[in-house]
Design a protein that fits this description.
This protein has about 450 residues and is of the alpha+beta class. The protein is built from nine helices and 14 strands. The radius of gyration is 50 Å and the shape is rod-shaped.
């Protein structure tokens, strides 16, 4: 079923216009036919009156018409216009030359004197005729006589004219249809403009350029706009509350974990190393989970809820400046090739969190240098981070981004960093690929 309002409106408009114009065409043809028949009736009545005024009686009572109608169609055999005068008393008749050898088969029904009777009769050569007949009483030399005067015209005159008129107005009807459909389209465009404004406002909200629907809207849409704004406000409040609760919970756990770590250190000093190591391990695991939950509470729930888009070069510069101040980072060479104009649809804080974890991992394992570059591939930006560390075996590459995975237990860490990278990538539908460099070291490719 058609889902577009514009498409539905245009379909209904097209059907309505075509049906309306078809009906208008029929009505116009009907009106034309009625008017033409009225004119023909008036013409036939005029011929009857002219013939009646010209009829004469000879001294012997014979009917005569010395001044015959002058229309040339009366003189052409089967010319389409005919007249006939009948004298029933003497069984005589006068006819136009156009009838030639044909006699109008006037009905023998009773007629009121002076009244026009109209009917259709068969005519010469199989034609149909529109006939008017009038019975008139004349004063003859031998008394009053009832004379029947009839005038007829070929019915095809009406049908042919109506058909020609119907075809003649078709181009004008089509032009009118185009105009009406164009007017409907203009009306639709103007009428749906407020809805387009709502769609534009929602796009701005999704792109984090606005937090609510703003602007002037028609009365009919104010209820919808108000409901959407209330929903957005409620959603923002719920998200903030959820983040606050997660942060409060994580912070609330930090103090007990710190105490637990201190207890582990105290036990180790007393010589109870096994128990101390177990407590320290449990505290470390729990601390890693707390850190991860704190991080997840800060990232966007989905890409549409990001605050704004992120500039890749600015995020890289901020993280690298921080890592260069660390004991490991200050001794490394940094090769950075990231164009300043690259912007991606990721929240700036989330991109910094992602890059921070990836680069922190690179700093831990790199021997002398780290390379960061951004390139364009298939209309997407690919950020490539390489180090010259030992790399990882194939099994390690497959499990590296799983939560809590550590490939070297001697190196400080929780195994949570790359798992956070995976979580952020899932929110924004990013592709993260980890491979070994041919010359040694690790390469992480992030398709943004």
């Amino acid at each position: 079923m058609m889902q577009s309002i514009r498409g539905r409106f245009l379909l209904v408009s097209l059907i309505s216009v075509l049906v309306a114009l078809a009906m208008a065409n029929l009505v116009l043809v009907l009106l034309f036919t009625r008017n033409l028949e009225a004119r023909i009736d008036a013409e036939l009545s005029g011929h009857i009156n002219n013939i009646a005024g010209a009829l004469r009686f000879a001294e012997d009572g014979r009917l005569d018409l010395p001044d015959r109608p002058v229309d040339r169609r009366f003189d052409e055999p089967y010319g389409g216009l005919y007249w006939q005068v009948e004298d029933d008393e003497r069984a005589s008749e006068l006819r136009s030359a156009s009838l030639w050898d044909f006699t109008l088969p006037l009905p023998d029904d009773a007629q009121e004197t002076g009244t026009i009777h109209r009917y259709k009769l068969p005519g010469p050569e199989g034609t149909d005729l529109i006939v008017q007949e009038r019975k008139i009483i004349f004063a003859a030399p031998v008394g009053e006589r009832a004379i029947r005067i009839a005038a007829a015209i070929d019915a095809s005159v009406v049908s042919d004219a109506s058909r020609a008129f119907a075809f003649d107005i078709i181009p004008y009807m089509l032009a009118l249809a185009v105009f009406l459909i164009a007017a409907s389209l203009a009306q639709l465009t103007f009428g749906l403009k407020p809805i387009s404004s709502v769609a534009t406002g929602l796009d701005r909200i999704r792109e984090r350029k606005a937090e609510r629907l703003e602007g002037r809207f028609p009365q009919e849409l104010k209820g919808v706009v108000g409901a959407v704004n209330q929903l957005l406000d409620a959603q923002a409040q719920l998200i903030e509350k959820a983040k606050s609760r997660a942060a409060n919970l994580a912070h609330g756990l930090k103090t007990p974990l710190t105490v637990l770590s201190n207890d582990a250190a105290t036990l180790r000093e007393r010589g109870e190393v096994a128990i101390a190591d177990e407590l320290a391990h449990l505290a470390g695991v729990m601390q890693a989970h707390v850190e991860r939950e704190l991080t997840l509470s800060r990232i966007a729930a989905n890409a549409s809820l990001r605050r704004s888009d992120a500039n890749i070069a600015e995020a890289v510069d901020l993280i690298v400046k921080t890592l260069r101040r660390t004991p490991r980072g200050e001794g490394l060479k940094w090769h950075i090739a990231v164009p300043t104009e690259l912007v991606v649809g990721v929240d700036p804080h989330d991109l910094q969190e992602l890059l921070g974890n990836v680069l922190d991992n690179a700093v831990k394992w790199s021997r002398t240098e780290i390379s960061i570059q951004a390139i364009r591939q298939e209309q997407r930006t690919v950020l490539i981070i390489e180090d010259d560390g030992p790399g990882a075996d194939p099994a390690g590459l497959r499990t590296m981004m799983e939560r809590g995975t550590r490939l070297d237990l001697q190196t400080p860490g929780t195994g949570i960093g790359l798992a956070i990278v995976r979580d952020i990538a899932a929110v924004y539908d990013l592709s993260v690929e980890i491979t070994n460099r041919p010359v040694g070291g690790l390469r992480i490719s992030i398709r943004l």
